[in-house]
Amino acid sequence: MSEIDDLDGDDAGEVGGGLPGPSGLTEAAIAAGAACLSCGGDISGPYCSSCGQKNDDLRRSSFVLGKDFLKDTFGFDSRMWRTLGMLAISPGRVPNEYAHGRRSRFTPPVRLFLVVSFLFFLTIGLTNTLFVGVEVEFRDPDPETLKTALAKAEDAGVELSEEARTGKCSFQSQLRFFVKEKNLRIDRERINACLGDVRDDAQEVIDASEDVAVGEDEGIETEREQAGEVVGRVFKGINWAVTNPREFNDSFNDWLPRVLFFMTPVLALILALFLRRGALIFDHLVLAFYTHAAGFAVIGLSLILAQFGAPYMGVAAAIALPVYYIAVLKRAYGRGWIKTLWTALMSGVLYMTVLFSILLTIMSNIVWSATA
Length: 372
Prior knowledge:
Elements: H1 9-13, H2 27-32, H3 62-74, H4 78-89, H5 93-99, H6 109-126, E1 129-138, H7 143-155, H8 162-166, E2 171-180, H9 188-208, H10 223-243, H11 245-274, H12 281-307, H13 313-333, H14 337-370
Helix pairs in contact: 5-12, 5-13, 6-12, 9-10, 10-14, 11-12, 11-14, 12-13, 13-14
C-alpha cells in the first residue's frame, strides 16, 4: 500500500480539499506539480508527457466556471479576429488549413459559428428587422382580365361579392426579406375585407360542389364541410400573418437558429456528393461551419450599414454571398474554374431547395397553428 492508501477518509480529502484525491500520488508531488494527476507520470510543462492531460484538476467555483464558459465561447481573442480577417480577405484558406491540421492559429469552426450567429441575431433584434414580411399592393385590374374572371365565375355558378365584381380586391403580394415593419405597405382594413370576400367566394364554390358523405351515420361531417373548415382556417391564418408581421416573425425566429445550425451538416453532405476525391466529410463540415459564419457576418454587416443610410445593401449581400461561396470552393478544394462553378451552382441549388422547403414548412405550420 502507498502512503495515500494508508490515510483514512478525512486525511485523504485534505490532499486537494473537498473530495478525496487520487491514490498512488504523494501530497508533495501533487503540490509541487511534478506528477500528473491522472497517471502519475512526470510533468514538464503544462501537459503530461505520458498521457497528454493538462496539469489542472479543473475544480472551480460555479461563478468562475460560468465566467470561463462565457469567455471561452463568446470572447473575442486574437485568434477570433485573425480567423474573421482571414475569412474575409482569403476565402477558403481557413477551412483548408484547419482541416489539414493547422488549427492553433484559428478559432474552431463550431465556436466561431455560435459567436457570429449570436451577434447576427442580436443585430436583427437591435435593428428591429423582420426576417420576412408580406407586402400587399392593391391595384386596378386589367379590364379584360377582370371580364374573363367574371365570365368563369358565372359559368361556375358562383355569385361574387361587389368588391370582387368591381375589382376592388385586385392585389399583388410578394415576400420581402430583412425588412423593417414600417417599410411594409399593409392596408389592414382593406386586406381584412378582401380576404374575407375571397374566403366567402371559395366557400360558395365548395357549397356548390357535390356533397359526398364520409360515413353512413348521420352527424358525420361531409367532405364539403371539412373542406370549408380548412379553407376558412387557411384564410384566417394568412390574414393574421400578413397583418401581424411582428408576431409572425417572433414565432419564426424561434425556429430559424435551429434550422441554420441544421443546415451546416446538410451543406457538408451536399458537397460530399460533388467532391468525393481527396476530401472527407470532416473537411466539408469544417468548410460548412466557417462558410455559414461568414454568411452571418456579411448579412449582419449589410444590415448595420443600411441603418446608416447605405443604399442597396440587400442587393449587395445577395450578390456577395454566392461570389464568396464560389471563391471558398475554389481555394479550399483547388479545382479548376469550370468544376468549381458547376459544383457551386448545383450544391447551391440543392442547399436552397432544402432550406426553403424547411422554411416554408415552418411558416405554414406557424400560420396553421395561429388559428387553432
